[in-house]
Amino acid sequence: MVKSLMIQGTSSGSGKTILVTALCRIFSDLGYTVSPFKAQNMSNFSYIGKNFEISRAQAIQAVAARTDIVPTQNPILLKPLGNYKSSVFVNGKFFKKMHASDYYENFVLKTGIKTSMDSFKKLSQLHEIIFLEGAGSPAEINLQKFDITNMKIAQKTKSPVLLITDIERGGAFASIVGTMELIEKKYVELVKGFIVNKFRGDIEILKPGYKKLKQKTGLPVFGTIPMTNFEIPDEDSIGNSPKSLNWNTSNLKKLDTEINKIAKVVKSSLNIREVEKLLK
To answer: What sign does the CA torsion over 166, 20, 108, 235 have?
Structure first.
């Protein structure tokens, strides 16, 4: 039976994508068969395979997991066109151009959630561990009804959730507590702990904050990831300047080196044994 864990964030750019990439490599190194999964991704940077197209982020995560890049790892890809319209790809194939209102009202809670779960089930037959990536924040209260990338999919796949926050932006503790307050109550028990990302300085100064966080939420911090420079292409989200990636042998070798680099940092920063327990 497959085991799964979802990484959600307090905001876009909190570090979900890179953390899933690192976890895919870490648990592959531990001898597990691993795959990434993101139900829905919005990005203009994609990986074009043989007769399919998915988000580049999930393709890189598949490389990290040492598994094949397949459409089921990102069953829904939205490529923004402007004016609230996107090109919608389903299972790696172009589906249609849709306005946001049409997508939310007529697609996401019908075809979208079914497609996502079908893809997850197919992946689960081939892997021991699946690391799911959320999108944006699970606390976007205006969109929670239509959000199939965070808590709904975590609940349906029975995946515990770790919440990551970017401390460099400031307000990290408030973001964590606020997120826990705003997610629907039926989902609160899915969250098992927190990860603080992009920290600079002496970790001792964070410990009083971690103690207060435990008092407020009852949940632990699984680790503190230091600010780290690495050359893994970003998605085209707020604050990023993504670079194109040519999937040739030379670049894949460089990418593999960078994946190993960030995996080493994450492994030394997180309580991997406790993360592994969540997968039991």
So the answer is: positive
DSSP state of 71: G
Q: 3-state class of 56 per DSSP?
A: helix
Q: What is the pTM of this model?
A: 0.94
> How far, in Å, are 33, 172, 192 from residue 165 at the CA level?
27, 6, 14
Cross-strand partners of 97:
87
Q: Kindly state the tokens that stand for 230.
A: 């690495």
- The phi, psi pair for 140, rounded to 5°, reads -75, 85
pLDDT band for 238, please (50, 70, 90 cuts): very low
Contacts of 70 (CB under 8 A, 6+ apart): 49, 52, 62, 123
DSSP result, 183-220: S-HHHHTTEEEEEEEEE-S-GGGGHHHHHHHHHHHS--
pLDDT at 169 over 60: yes
Q: Which residues contact 81 (CB under 8 A, 6 or more apart)?
A: 87, 97
The pLDDT score that the predictor gives to residue 272 is 95
CA distance 153 to 132: 9
- 232 and 259 in contact (C-beta within 8 Å)? yes
Ordered by where they begin, the domains of the chain are 3-35+117-278 (3.40.50.300)
Residue 175: name the closest of 139, 200, 143, 215 by CA. Answer: 139
CA 185 from centre of chain: 22
In the three-class reduction of DSSP (H, G, I as helix; E, B as strand; rest coil), residue 82 is classed as strand
Count Cβ neighbours within 10 Å for each residue of 81-115 and write b for 16 or more, e otherwise. Answer: eeeebbbbbbbbeeeeebeeeebbeebbeeebbeb
CB 218 within 8 A of CB 189: no
Nearest CA to 162 out of 26, 277, 259 is that of: 277
